[in-house]
Design goal:
With about 325 residues, the protein is mainly beta. It has no helices and 25 strands.
């Protein structure tokens, strides 16, 4: 400490009184240091001193912040102890982590402060940004925290783009351990939805499973597909349909759902489903009362379209009819 002063009296051949130190010296706490501040306390028996007060705190790994230690010191232990609080705003890089704000507390014991805990804002691996809560190992410059936020910027790979989102990541010893939540997903002007990011995703590579819908209707061979929920797997440059269900319209007279099967080509659909006729329909003297078409699609081509319908003829006779819906069954 810096030199101080004593207000004392002699009792039984020993000094007793109050010691005051206006400290200006920097005193190391490991990867932190205390400096300016005032300590006061009693002196007894000419040699025993107990001091306490507030000292300025600097944390080497989070430079430029402001903090204090409510410090204690006694002549027996000759070590500083106490409770520390520190506020940081700026930019401090710890490997993959860039801390931009921190509000942390810690304990000084035996004139050393190895860890602090609290919250703030940070960027992880130039990929995620948000609010963190956890603890910091000042000696190793390693962190353990949970961060809730979003992607720093969109990641684009070919037609696939992921952006923003609502994410929670867990970091242990400064390494990413888990990612939860979803990001916004789109594939050109073809699909849009949300995606779960998976291991291996970085600023240049997307590994994800997305759930998306068609941006606009897709038509071929009398079949029109729209909306729906399509599970898409992205592994770097490889994008494929895993499964899904989409709305289907067949030749404008039947509507239903088509269940999709796996397809290595994202714009080529295969699957099966049922489309119900838009009954009642009047085809000449025949009135369609109800009916449905079983559909099978293979690589955007109608592989099967077999129908069943209940009909009335001239409002006098009713019956069942099977028909090949690949042909012009409305004629």
């Amino acid at each position: 400490f810096s030199a101080g002063n004593v207000k004392a009296a002699i009792t039984n051949n020993a000094l007793a009184g109050t010691v005051t130190i206006d400290n200006k010296n920097s005193i190391s706490l490991g990867k932190a240091a205390v400096s300016a501040g005032t300590l006061t306390g009693p002196m007894t028996n000419s040699e025993k001193v107990e001091l306490s007060g507030s000292l300025k705190l600097d944390v080497t790994a989070l430079p430029g912040g402001k903090g204090t230690v409510q410090a204690k010191w006694d002549s027996d232990g000759n070590k500083i102890s106490g409770q520390a609080a520190y506020e940081f705003a700026g930019s401090s890089t710890w490997g993959k982590i860039v801390f931009t704000k921190a509000s942390v507390t810690g304990e000084v014991a035996d004139q050393k402060m190895a860890k602090m805990a609290g919250s703030g804002t940070a960027v992880y691996d130039s990929l995620f940004k948000g609010n963190w809560n956890g603890d910091l190992d000042l000696d190793a410059e390693k962190a353990n925290f949970e961060l809730g936020g979003e992607l720093v910027a969109p990641i684009v790979q070919g037609e696939v783009q992921v952006s923003k989102g609502a994410l929670t990541i867990k970091v242990a010893q400064s390494e990413l351990k888990s990612t939860a939540g979803k990001v916004d997903f789109k594939l050109g002007s073809f699909l849009k939805g949300t995606a779960v990011l998976e291991e291996g995703t970085n600023a240049n590579t997307i590994n994800a499973t997305a759930t998306a819908e068609l941006v606009s209707a897709q038509s071929f061979e009398g079949v029109t597909l729209s909306k729906g929920s399509i599970v898409v797997q992205v592994r770097g440059p490889t994008v494929k349909t895993v499964s899904g269900s989409v709305d289907v319209d067949y030749k404008g007279v039947a509507q239903g759902k088509l269940s999709l099967t796996e397809s290595a080509e994202i714009r080529r659909f295969s699957g099966s489903g049922k489309a119900n006729l838009k009954a009642p329909l009047q085809w000449g003297d025949i009135k369609v009362l109800s009916g449905a078409i079983d559909l099978a699609l293979k690589n955007n081509t109608v592989d099967r379209a077999q129908g069943q319908m209940k009909i009335g003829y001239l409002d006098k006779v009713e019956g069942q009819m099977s028909f090949d819906a690949t042909k012009d069954f409305t004629a």
